Amino acid sequence: MKKTKTELIDAFIIEPNVISDSRGWFVETYSAQKFSDLGIGPVFVQDNHSMSKTSGVLRGLHFQLDPAAQTKIVRCTKGKILDVIVDLRKGSPTYKKWLKIELSEDNFKQLYIPQGFAHGFLTLVDDVEIQYKVDCLYSKDHDRSIRFDDPEIGVDWGITNPILSKKDLDAPLLKDSDCNFIYKGDMK
Fold this sequence. Notes:
The protein is built from two helices and 13 strands. It is mainly beta.
């Protein structure tokens, strides 16, 4: 398993070892011991699985407020997505900066998203499934989102008319949200 830093502080890419032969492949996507050896410390308490039927579905940008903020590890198990994260921690050197990465069933990459980040993804093909681990249970009272097209953030999604939920259509701009994340220093 390999951990690669990104340009956003505390966010990184995890690339598991893939063992393949003429029959197919095997991959270990999570190991508490291997994650600990890589310096990945949270205990994950919930797994989520999401399916989108068509290309052009955009889900995000989502997060949970403190004290129910979530660390996530996201992977695409069917199809292909453009995964996007935004650092929302006031005081962070990468505050309001964003990162996008393609995750697919073929590249096996996983994105580690620390607490204090918003997360969203765009489906690039039909019939997409993603799975992700979180270190804090879902809390409806802390569930929030911001506009995917917030001009203050400026994510380049590569699409002008995505398929959105009512929640994402009605999401506020960051400046109008009650986002309460504060940067506490590099977690390494």
